[in-house]
Amino acid sequence: MSPLFPALNRGPAERPALTFGGRSLTYARLAAASGAVAERIRTAGRVAVWATPVLETAVATVGALTAGAAAVPLNPKSGERELGHILADSAPDAVLTAPGAELPAALAGLPRIDVDVRATGPVLPDDADDEAPALIVYTSGTTGPPKGAVIPRRAIAATLDALADAWQWTGDDVLVHALPLFHVHGLVLGVLGPLRRGGSVRHLGRFSPEGVARELGAGATMLFGVPTMYHRVAEAFPADQELVKALAGARLLVSGSAALPVHDHERIASATGRRVIERYGMTETLMNTSVRADGEARPGTVGVPLPGVRLRLVEDDGTPIAAYDGETVGEIQVRGPNLFTGYLNRPDATAAAFTADGWFRTGDMAVRDPDGYVRIVGRKATDLIKSGGYKIGAGEIENALLEHPGVREAAVTGEPDADLGERIVAWIVPADPQAPPGLEELAGHVARRLAPHKRPRVVHHLDALPRNDMGKIMKRALGGHA
């Protein structure tokens, strides 16, 4: 049992820990404010966190972890059905939120705890068992409602310490990012990562190339982003020389959550002289591989396995690929202290996710070079879409579309998009061919039920969906990445 945030007790008390916009907390103030949260919830088993990109979300999460409670980050843009499922499944004892935040009706029955960043509470020992649940993060599957991945404290510590080794990450680093705080990229890597090191994080609130330039130009050393962000940065060249100068001065530029197109890699490297490095992870495993800070930033690859992570590629029958040649494709399976413990209330899904000998089946297909570098080539399944840094399951969007009275049949695929990575494409058989529902109507329908980033960007109307003899939709006949 070891603390997740040793700097809260013995770190540089007056060093800035968190900055969100114009609001900041030093380590001393963060210890006091998170201690006040921990004192209020010390008997709770799970607490929901209304995860808007504000200072209070970070304080709430640190307070929950300090108290030994499991935090359930909630996406503020979740639709009523999705939010209702998450709350029913996780059964939190309370919801932590910023004062004045308007919460949806689905949260009305939960005790509300407003986080006061000026409050002072006792500094608790932060000594929960390493296997104790730290976070329950809901991840979209290809079918059905989201599943809650139970992430133990051990996994957070292991991933962050492995990244510190790979990226030479220290307490002197200042990280800037603008990622959402309801998934592991923005919350675990982007907030808990700097705090574990005793460093600082500056969150932009909302991404903009101007904000990145301002913070990197003012002393930030690292930038975390998703391909959509780096694409927009590259698009701003060469007109914005302040942005070029700021990126050129950064110690580390990291992209994740989806593959960064080689074209954007090269544009950024050409303009700044700095290469973006990529890493590979998922909710259930946190981080598995990364290009090292002292290694070769090879565009199109996600580097080598992190310290402590075992990775193998297997054939369709589960046989491990014996020799890596950079061409043979296999499914990635991993083992290590970075893994989750299972899906909440879903022993069937948990069992299906692991092999008999304990390897986690990622569902991602890759090739591996002889020197260990890994290149992701796609999903084993055809129903996961990566758009704007999000992993989105087609099944739940199809289900939402089928609830629209103007939709008889629906299928969802992804297709390449220069900005988003992939855009969501809906293939619709309308109930009335003379009056088919349009893109705007269907996009709004999905956004209200699920979340705005899950809305279709393109709609095709068909007379019928192609199906095989078993009645299954043949998505490869539709186009897109399926």
Automatic annotation (TrEMBL):
Pfam families linked to this entry: AMP-binding (PF00501), AMP-binding_C (PF13193)
Residue span, AMP-binding enzyme C-terminal domain: 396-472
Entry-linked CDD domains: MCS
MF annotations from Gene Ontology: medium-chain fatty acid-CoA ligase activity
GO BP: fatty acid metabolic process
UniProt-listed InterPro entries: AMP-bd_C, AMP-bd_C_sf, AMP-binding_CS, AMP-dep_synth/lig_dom, ANL_N_sf
Domain AMP-dependent synthetase/ligase per the UniProt entry, residue ranges: 10-344
SUPFAM superfamilies: Acetyl-CoA synthetase-like
Family per record: Belongs to the ATP-dependent AMP-binding enzyme family.
Matching PANTHER family: ACYL-COA SYNTHETASE, ACYL-COA SYNTHETASE FAMILY MEMBER 3
Designated name of the protein: Acyl-CoA synthetase
Phylogenetic placement of the source organism: Bacteria, Bacillati, Actinomycetota, Actinomycetes, Kitasatosporales
